[in-house]
Amino acid sequence: MMSLLLAIALSCVFVTSQVAAEESEVVSYAGFQVWKIKPNSGEERQFILDIKDSYELELWNERRMTRDPIDFIIPPQSQTKLKSKLAERKISYVVVISDLQTAIDNQKTNINKTTSDSKAAYNMDWISYHRLNNIYAFLTYLNTTYPKLVQLINIGSSYEKRPLYVIRISNSSSPGTRPAIWIDGGIHAREWISPAVATYIIQQLVEVPANAKLLSNVDWYIMPVVNPDGYEFTHTTNRMWRKTRSVSSTSSCRGVDPNRNFGFKWGGLGASTNPCQDTYRGTKAFSEPETLATSNFIKGKSSQIKLYLTLHSYGQYALIPYGYDVVYPPDYNDLLALANNAASKFVKYTYTVGNSADLLYAASGGSDDWAKSIGIKYSYTFELPDRGTNAFTLPASEILPVCQDFFPALDVFATKVATCCGAFTTTTTKPLTTRTTRPTTTTKRTTTKCPCTCG
To answer: For the whole model, what pTM was predicted?
Structure first.
């Protein structure tokens, strides 16, 4: 009976947080902690997941392997009881964030401070996290200042009528005719490091002459904030908000997980039917104006876009489709080789490379799976730092190190995309026969003529 009452009480805590968010009251995470719980067996892992379900705990990060740790956010009301339960089973855990609100406050310290250079032409830097208006003003400035290099494209509007901006960077006399790379960030609202890295990439490509080689044979399409409504909500009301801000006709809970809303294997594993869950899939594929506009634009450029890169956090992973289940695409080894090459450029942070569902968990309706399904050969999700010490509250002091560490990998991607119209090696793979067996490969050399097919 006591366990039932505790479960009800904990449920009320999360419902209260949800209602507060809907009423635009600032959500406080004072006393909340983030625990990294480490099972020692499959039985212990299941016990931990049962606790999650019983007490409606929010899972932040899960890995597939039996002994891999699982990250949870633990409300203050449940901490004593859960400590006791884990102690009874001799399951170890580490408190990685002792007070989540303190971590949030520390992360926000530098938000929207201007750069130290008073002559800066825009209020944008990579030593602080920025609100949407600063990001959009930065994109507008680049569009105005470098009209031969930059085009700012409004591809639609969010649920709350904010513009959805893509920036094209090209030094071609005929932009839109060369192979291209797509990069997006901010699909999940609370992953602030993602738009920060995307805007850093934009700045480096546009304003740093030493990076002109990256524009020699490749166009770039970059969308730094796919989910602007959610992103703004994390700044004003609920720092841990993940979803969009659309209103459901069947529930008081708002929003859809954009990365469960894309139209390939939509509604499968890892996608919730509950509108109050963080992984809610929506009423149908592309139900959200943000995912619909983004997918329509990419489809319109799919013959040009040869590499799709979506930035998320956290965990330091380079993830390869498919994510809807442990299934490998026929050209998995091609994708793996390129991802390993890119990851080899990282110095400060080490990334784990592999199949999404195999390394982490199955998640259907993801943007990278969808991009792969429409014919974009090289499709990746990069989960940016860190591995959980700060999680979504990565300090502003880490922004520039993360950006600088990541940027050299783009040379690897650009080289692959730029040279895919010449003679190159392509792999033919044996069709997958089981869910967990990697494809075997044979290799032959072929010559491809333009237009580029990237293999």
So the answer is: 0.87
